[in-house]
Amino acid sequence: MGGISIWQLLIVALIIVLLFGTKKLRGMGGDLGSAIKGFKKAVTEDEEKKEETTKKLNKEDADFNEADSATAKKEETKSDK
C-alpha cells in the first residue's frame, strides 16, 4: 500500500529510456561518473596539500626552536665569561 513496486519502477525506467534514448543516458552516466571522480580527486589533493603544509610548518617551527636554543646557548656562554 502506497509503496512503489518493481513493475512501477520498470515502467518508469522504460519511459525514461524511450524519452532520452540509450546513447544520451549512457553519456549522462559517463558525465556523472567523471564529475564524481573529479570531485574525489580534488578532495584528496586538498587533503594532501593540507598535510604537506602542516608538515612544512612543523619543520619550520622545529628549525626556529633549534635556532632559538642555539642562540640561548651562545648567550649563556657569553654571560659565563
UniProtKB/TrEMBL annotation:
It is found in: Cell membrane. Keywords: Cell membrane, Membrane, Protein transport, Translocation, Transmembrane, Transmembrane helix, Transport. GO terms for cellular component: TAT protein transport complex. GO terms for molecular function: protein transmembrane transporter activity. One of its GO terms (biological process) is protein transport by the Tat complex. Residues 47-81 are annotated as: Disordered. Residues 50-62, 71-81 have a biased composition (Basic and acidic residues). InterPro entries: TatA/B/E, TatA/E. The chain crosses the membrane at residues 6-22. Part of the twin-arginine translocation (Tat) system that transports large folded proteins containing a characteristic twin-arginine motif in their signal peptide across membranes. TatA could form the protein-conducting channel of the Tat system. NCBIfam families: PRK02958.1, tatAE. The Tat system comprises two distinct complexes: a TatABC complex, containing multiple copies of TatA, TatB and TatC subunits, and a separate TatA complex, containing only TatA subunits. Substrates initially bind to the TatABC complex, which probably triggers association of the separate TatA complex to form the active translocon. Belongs to the TatA/E family. This is Sec-independent protein translocase protein TatA.
